[in-house]
Design brief:
By secondary structure, the chain is of the alpha+beta class. It contains three helices and four strands, in the order E-H-E-E-H-E-H. Helix 1 packs antiparallel against helix 2. InterPro entries: MTH1187/YkoF-like, Thiamine_BP, UPF0045_domain.
């Protein structure tokens, strides 16, 4: 399993508010999660998705298209991928627990 963190920024919109774009992108993520292909965690600055790498890339591509579908003239998407293959991949929760256990 891989983990990807991504941020999608619509450019050329009529407003500085982006919450309607984020909500529309969130719906795409919910659809994918309902299919069981990925899980996701939304934060104030980015989104983290977990699942097979091929599914993550497809989800990022789908979400990247949403602002265009809503009329944005340009979209900038940044992606970071953690794809560990030397042993079974850890989930976001497992990674956090590993750090928290060392803080005690």
């Amino acid at each position: 399993m891989a983990i990807a963190e991504f941020t999608v920024v619509p450019i050329g919109t009529s407003s500085t508010s982006l919450s309607s774009y984020v909500a529309a992108m969130h719906r795409v993520l919910e659809e994918e999660q309902a299919k069981g292909t990925v899980t996701f965690h939304l934060s104030a600055m980015s989104t983290i998705v977990e699942g097979p790498l091929e599914h993550l890339m497809n989800v990022v591509l789908r979400v990247h298209e949403v602002p265009f579908e809503m009329g944005a003239g340009r979209v900038s998407t940044s992606v970071k991928i953690d794809d560990r293959r030397d042993k079974p991949g850890a989930s976001v929760e497992q990674k956090l627990q590993s750090v928290y256990s060392k803080l005690k």
